[in-house]
Request: fold
Amino acid sequence: MKFLVARIMDDNHAYAYVADTLGGESLLDSHLPMLDLIEQLAHDCTTMHPSDSRSAGLEYALRVLGQSYAAHPAYQQEWRP
Reply:
């Protein structure tokens, strides 16, 4: 989950840069809320007790979302769903 949160933070900074330099407000309006929600799910997953019936599904969903960063050098193949 740390990997996914770090990539989300990178994306947040990149989108903020685009908005500042190119005026991409619509990009920010559509993507930043989604990134915030994914970050919240990652946080929930790390604090959720493994016996919680939602934990397996949430972990799977985060692994699927994490695949969008599979080209990143720090991505590990064992994280694939």
Observations:
- The CA atoms of residues 12 and 65 lie 16 Å apart.
- The first helix runs from residue 2 to 22.
- The two ends are 13 Å apart (CA to CA).
